[in-house]
Amino acid sequence: MDIFELIQKRRSVFPPQYNDKPIQREAIKKILEAANWAPTHKKTEPWRFKVLQGEKRKELGVFLSQKYQEVDARPKQIKIKKLQENPMRAAAIIAICMQRDPSESLPEWEELAATAMAVQNMWLCCTELGIGSYWSSPGLIKYMDEFFDLQEGEKCLGFFYMGYHEEEIDTSPRKPIEEKTEWLD
To pair with 146 at 20 to 30 A between CA atoms, which of 51, 101, 158, 177? Predict the structure, then answer.
């Protein structure tokens, strides 16, 4: 697949669509290596990842569902169930974290953008490998320092769910770029 076709085929594939096929560690390493080549201003390389497989996925689901019930005055059973089940549906979950440059040599948004570009590289690599993926950023991520051992200045930005799937994923239409572009001469 050429790069433009790969970009067009990249889609969110959600945990209920995943099958039980495991993702080999070598594939996950390749996906993470793709992330590592994202652009980074002042070479801060702010992206940090925590790979969850096996029982750690279940622990994440338990933590998220319990935390949700703790912080929401009127928790919904359907959301509790989804928070518990989605991690177990994924073959692997990568917690997406960002390590703020301790000297704050550049604006935080630039490090957020670099981390997002790292995730885009992961997403494109997953597409190439036939692995479905989805970046989830629930409100509960602000509590992830209670689950992970985060470093000073490190924050969790969400979860990158991954799993093989058998469904054909439809292409998503886009409005013409002409509607979003202003040419200035």
Answer: 101
